[in-house]
Amino acid sequence: MSLKTVISSTLVPMLIGCSFVWSFNGAFAQNEKFKVVLDAGHGGADPGNVGNGFKEAVISLSVALEVGKILEKVKGIEVVYTRKTNVAVNLYDRPKVANSIDADLFVSIHCNSHHTQASGTETFVIGPASNERNFEVAKRENEVIFMEENYEKNYEGFDPNSPESLIGLSLMQEDFIDLSIHLAELIESNFVNQAKRKSRGVKQSNFWVLHNTYMPSVLVEMGFLTNDEEGPFLNSPSGQSQMAVSIADAILKFIGELDYFVENDQAS
After folding, report:
1. Is 0.85 topped by the overall pTM?
2. Where are the alpha helices (DSSP H) in the chain?
């Protein structure tokens, strides 16, 4: 099932102890599952950023797997991972995983870095980089393409160091931008209210990993490994669990609200 299909389901949260248990009232249209692709950033020879000695690739994978475990307990949801171990996956292939299965949602999970003690979470959707900081984040995440074989062919002359190369990346996602922004808002809200983290907000920038997905897509930066408080938090099992629960809960809320978005889109 894709978001082109009218979805007739609602999601009901039931609080048991300190954890949420979720169930569906009704079924998805045509009894098809809602497909969520979880993309743990970096991996293998590409450790991502290594602020304070922590490895982004390892942390993002741990969180993605925990998000997946939560979602997999919900009947009606199928979870697909771009990687489940610490292996390298070409940036070029990550959106292809989602497109090949006609996924309904793509969530890429990362950790941030900076030369200062910058802190806070931020969730990105595709769009023009609104300031130099957003461009630098996108540039850093996109530069991994230079580690791949045949990158000149796969990326058709794309230069992550050039703002001009980034301008056209938002066009493919235009149909899903509102849904992507809404999911990003739910994630950031949960980071603040559930995980008690500082949020830098929802932002738009040009990430290659988002530009060619044909479904709502977000890239989550869970905090700065270079920050002396956030780095140890994100490297800890407790911190990773809190971030995973916040992300999974936001995804489940998003799915539960799709009736509203589909109905309003049809009415417009």
Report:
1. no
2. 56-72, 93-100, 132-142, 151-154, 163-166, 177-193, 208-211, 230-235, 237-256, 258-267
